[in-house]
């Protein structure tokens, strides 16, 4: 169709074959059954994603959706760190320096101490990946919070600080602290304890433990998924600066330096390491799928009536599938972007997509797809008062106004195309809170429950697509109880919102100064 052709021209270039990925599996049937009747065809229409990334089949009983920062914090502290026996892997933008963050570090220390006491030599390994620029900000920072752990447990603890290869040379010398973070960051948020994995958009900072609303999903007893994210964090850690006991940093021996070495060589090595993790996991899962399929088919023509009855009684263990989606444009990895664009493109008339972001600054490709396709959209974004930059000092204090301007421009385009019924904006507002949730929920036509959600670090903006290291997962499920959990999560977030209309932008707190309007188009690719 003309829409697909335009989309191919706009976005995919040499990767346009990805739009044909859904054709590699059986065509998805038209959903004509009663609401929520999605299984198995509804969920299985997304199996094309496994042509790009590993597919992890799990039981929905292993998935738990968390709802509050306090629940997230307590899970990090009590349920996970204190019970970890083999590994703790944490990837975040930064670790804060307050009392709550210190308690978290104390829990890590306690877990390491316990591990030593049990056997005399610890089996527990702790690997922490943070961003170099954000983690080095100020005199007291993420590095100073973690050096005592390195000093006490040098054999068990690794702290890696990713430094974007795009911040180098004269630019690195001239651009001041804080502003240097606009060039590119390690933005992945994964918290992993033995075989339990938490995917979130939340950082390790007191606001994210108290009154900064985000999203959080716990995948319990999922060793293959835990192995994948351990290997991913290790791969990024290998191309990152290593924190030393004296708070200095150095690269691993033989590794190209991110800002002193050859940029192309560094990015090529990083690409090979990360794609190696993705491809090896994908191969492992394909072999596992083939073996499972072979075992299930073995002797099928000779089934007795009793075997047949037992087969009918036996419920499939896997009713939920996890697909890790990685976006690292500096390394030439654009999987998350490709999958997200394909999902937006393929959403049919009658489908509903609830999309949320704490920073509404969609890429042009995403905006064009939302405005040019047929699904209904409910887009949840932060009102100025719950924007993380609200009340900030200096230039940063104008950022909420810049987001208001971007939002107004998009809303005007929606109105110009007479799409107000199909594309609705809603603003999150909650006194005393800020808003940082991101992701989407996909409801197929004729269904009141979502069968797919994206959850992780990307904000759907220019930074997420082009500058930062990002990871999220697509969770596809045919289990009604899990679909209900995801639906309740979505409803709970949207309950704290109001629908945007033209009168919204007439309110005094939506006034945008002329200089902000002039500057926003020039700097919108940096925030």
User: Biggest sheet: strands, sense, closure?
Assistant: 10 strands, mixed
CATH architecture of the largest domain: 2-Layer Sandwich
Structural class: alpha+beta
CATH topology of the largest domain: Endonuclease, Chain A
Strand percentage lies at 15-25%
Q: Please report the distance between the alpha carbons of the first and last residues.
A: 35 Å
Taken from the alpha-carbon principal axes, the silhouette is: globular
Uncertain ranges: 1-40, 307-315
**Percent range for helical residues?**
25-40%
Q: Please tell me how large the radius of gyration is.
A: 23 Å
Q: Would you tell me the overall average pLDDT?
A: 88
State the name of the first-level CATH class of the largest domain: Alpha Beta
| Helix count from the secondary structure assignment | 17
Family: Belongs to the CDP-alcohol phosphatidyltransferase class-II family.
Protein name: CDP-diacylglycerol--glycerol-3-phosphate 3-phosphatidyltransferase
EC number: 2.7.8.5
Biased composition (Polar residues): 298-309
